[in-house]
Amino acid sequence: MQDLPHLLAILAALTVGIVSPGPSFVMVARTALSTSRREGVAAAFGMGAGGVVFAVAALLGLHALLLAVPSLYLGLKLVGGLYLAFLGYRIWRAAQRPLRLGNLAEHPATRTRLALALGFTTQISNPKTAIVYASVFAAFLPAEQSLTFDLALVTLIFLIEVGWYSLVALALASERPRSAYLRYKSWIDRLAGGVMIALGLKLLSAAHF
Fold first, then answer.
1. pLDDT tens column, 183-197
2. How far apart are CA 25 and CA 47, in angstroms?
């Protein structure tokens, strides 16, 4: 494939951003710790689906659209910041509540769908991720790319997103991290909630009317 260097450059740049700690990492980590491997991996697939949305949007010209319509980026910051702060508040508020592990297995399919949806919404609520995708694609896309190139790129991005966050979920859902979480749940939840709230407020403060 003559476009292989472009493909590798995009994947390398995005992988650095994917593995960097942020709201997506916090959400997958807490989901795996507080529920199960199944829900953690489902959240990872939600992250992958969100990555596909950003990749397709970037292929369709997201970078040019954001430059042409600055108010769109402002709206993304406001909505994303409010959503992340809301998620953080929910986590903080539930810090003192005991984790009722017995209820987690009653409706596994429902909880898996909820974890999938939570991963997806957390991913797409972060406008900084949208900008990273848009900027990387604008910088490294070949002048003319084929449908095969586009499909390969989107598929590999999905696999990298799902693969990384699945590793995070599987590592943190093991017995030792789970026991530590149950022992220090209130403090860990306050930390996770505080990080999410801070990230949300940072986005809101960066929005300029």
1. 777 887 788 788 878
2. 10
- 184-191's contacts with Cβ under 8 Å and 24+ in sequence apart are 185/34, 185/95, 185/98, 185/99, 186/95, 186/96, 187/95, 188/30, 188/33, 189/30, 189/91, 189/92, 189/94, 189/95, 190/92, 190/95
pLDDT tens per residue, range 50-106: 999 999 988 888 767 766 777 776 777 777 778 778 878 887 887 777 655 444 445
Give the dihedral sign, CA 14/18/20/21.
positive
The answer for residues whose C-beta is within 8 angstroms of residue 118's C-beta and 6 or more apart is 27, 31, 43, 46
Which of 41, 200, 208 lies closest to 122 in space, CA to CA? 200
Cα 69 to Cα 152: distance, rounded to the nearest angstrom: 29
Tokens, residue 118 = 């939570």
164 within 8 A of 24, measured Cβ to Cβ: no
| Cα–Cα distance measured from residue 156 to residue 174, given in angstroms and rounded to the nearest whole number | 27
Tokens 């980590």 sit on residue: 29
